[in-house]
Amino acid sequence: MAETITIARPYAEAVFQLADKAGELAKWSEALARMAGIAANPDMLEAMGNPRLTADQLYGLFASLAGEAMFAQSQNLVRVLIQNRRLSLVPEIRDLFEDLKNEREGIVEAQITTAFPLEGATLATLVADLEKRFKRRIQPIVTLDPALIGGVCVQVGDEVIDGSVRGKLASMVVALKS
């Protein structure tokens, strides 16, 4: 996995510099998201590995699926990736691009794991509290895990805040064994 990220990084950095210079970070973000979905599709992965498809045929297939995501610069990116047999790296390129974009915009992702779905106001309050604590804008990514029993577990960068019932019970078990 680390190898694909290492290969994808120069592409992501080049796209980020191009998008940043043109003031098109949002446009590229949307295009890369669309292209990553297409590149990760099992049928597309099979087509990428098909030696009978020429580069032009593969480009035509990809472009027909991408639709509006294929503006002039993204077309060039796709052609370069196909030429270098790296089209399958688009999801990693997208992830690295989003990391660079978020860093530029002062946004940090927060992985929020909760036992129950968070309502709009509750999520907004939690995000506001996290923004105060980390002094940055927070982009929440919420996942459900009924095993938490209740509460939430938040991961921002390498910091974890475990406010789950499961986490508190585990702490109590450790304290009682001591």
Verbal overview:
With 178 residues, the protein is an alpha+beta fold. The protein is built from eight helices and four strands. The protein has helices at residues 2-22, 25-40, 42-48, 55-66, 72-83, 90-105, 120-134, 165-177; strands spanning 107-114, 137-144, 152-156, 159-162. α2 packs antiparallel against α6. The model has no long low-confidence stretch (mean pLDDT 90).
Can you list the strand order of the major beta sheet? Answer: 2-1-3-4
Number of strands: 4
In angstroms, what is the radius of gyration?
A: 21 Å
N-to-C series of helices and strands: HHHHHHEHEEEH
Key features?
8 helices; alpha+beta; 63% helix; 178 residues; 4 strands
What are the SSEs and their pairings?
Blueprint: H1 2-22, H2 25-40, H3 42-48, H4 55-66, H5 72-83, H6 90-105, E1 107-114, H7 120-134, E2 137-144, E3 152-156, E4 159-162, H8 165-177
Parallel strand pairs: 1-2
Antiparallel strand pairs: 1-3, 3-4
Helix pairs in contact: 1-6, 2-6, 4-5
What's a quick, concise take on this entry?
By secondary structure, this protein is α+β, with helices and mostly antiparallel strands. It has eight helices and four strands.
